[in-house]
């Protein structure tokens, strides 16, 4: 089993595609594969800040669900976008404003398609991925050894947001 782990694409679609090409992924007939059967892992934060968050969602959706070439693990930005799509009150800042601006530029139907793709990705995702074949565990913000095998709220917060202190800087 050979994997390429890509974290924090943050809407940088062009760079992501260039990296995939460099790693040997090829597009044939509209579908991606790798001549050596390598697999991709997108390790969270695929959206926000960069110029192409929505196209990045579509790319990762295709790679996970259609091409079966990638795994997707959520990050803190993904969690926030998920809560935004649920209609929860989230602050549209720290990068989310770029994704929301992209969404607002779409028609309602286009928005629905993207939302559906992202929700499907997020809801099928595991909080972290155990890859015993290569003696590896991947998590967006890391994981404590004693959390491995657990999937409760405490573990969810840790793998998404890290080992937070609860302290806050004046700028939030
Ligand atoms: Mn992050």
Distance between the termini: 42 Å
Going across the biggest sheet, name each strand in turn. Answer: 1-4-5
Count of DSSP-assigned helices:
6
The ordered H/E elements are EHEEEHEHHHEEH
Largest sheet: 3 strands, parallel
Catalogue the ligands: manganese (II) ion
Overall spatial form: globular
pLDDT < 50 runs, ≥5 residues: none
Share of helix, binned: 40-55%
- Give the C-alpha Rg: 16 Å
Q: What's the mean pLDDT score? A: 96
User: Based on helices, strands and strand pairing, what is the structural class?
Assistant: alpha/beta
Word description of this protein:
It is a single chain. This protein has 172 residues and is an alpha/beta fold. Helix content is 40%, strand content 15%. It contains 6 helices and 7 strands, in the order βαβββαβαααββα. The strands form 3 sheets. The protein has a 3-stranded parallel beta sheet. Strand 4, helix 2 and strand 5 form a beta-alpha-beta unit. Helix 3 (76-85) packs across helix 5 (108-124). It is globular and about 50 Å long. The model has no long low-confidence stretch (mean pLDDT 96). The protein binds manganese (II) ion (MN). Manganese (II) ion (MN) is lined by residues 44-45, 75-77, 140.
What key phrases describe this protein's structure?
two-stranded antiparallel sheet, 172 residues, 7 strands, 40% helix, alpha/beta, binds manganese (II) ion, 3-stranded parallel beta sheet, 6 helices
